[in-house]
Amino acid sequence: MAEEHYDILRRVNRLSKEARTGGSRRTTAELFSELESKLKGHFVEEENTLYRPLETVLGEDGPIMDMIEEHRMIQRSLVRAGAILWARTGHQTHPSELQRVCDSLDELIRSHIDKEEAVLFWLAAARGAI
Ligand SMILES: [Fe+2]
Ligand SMILES: [Fe+2]
After folding, report:
1. CA 116, CA 31: separation in Å to the nearest integer?
2. Ligand 2: distance of its center to the CA of 116 in Å?
3. Domain count of the chain?
4. pTM (2 d.p.)
5. Which positions of the chain have pLDDT values less than 70?
6. What is the CATH number of the domain that holds 42?
7. What's the mean pLDDT when you consider all of the chain?
8. Nearest listed ligand to the Cα of residue 72
């Protein structure tokens, strides 16, 4: 899973850079679609193979509900970025708005992955949940 995290971080960083430097709409859209589909698969797998077993061990008062909520926040942020990316005002896009949403997506994903690697992986190993 750590390798997947690295791949996701690399992708969101590229997307953010592309949005910041006003790259082509097609490249930005491709990077966005790849990241979106990568994250969808990652979240499903992670919730089934890491979060559920951990929740069984830790109970509902543990951090899992918050982590699931972060997945939903990231998904909402993806929907916002997608809406901006596909929106047209005439034939204009909104580069600064797209840049802002991509930067916030980058920040959200980084902080989420940091928590998983610093806390959840360790907890799961220590409590025999994986
Ligand atoms: Fe996650
Ligand atoms: Fe993850």
Report:
1. 24
2. 6
3. 1
4. 0.89
5. 88-94
6. 1.20.120.520
7. 90
8. 1
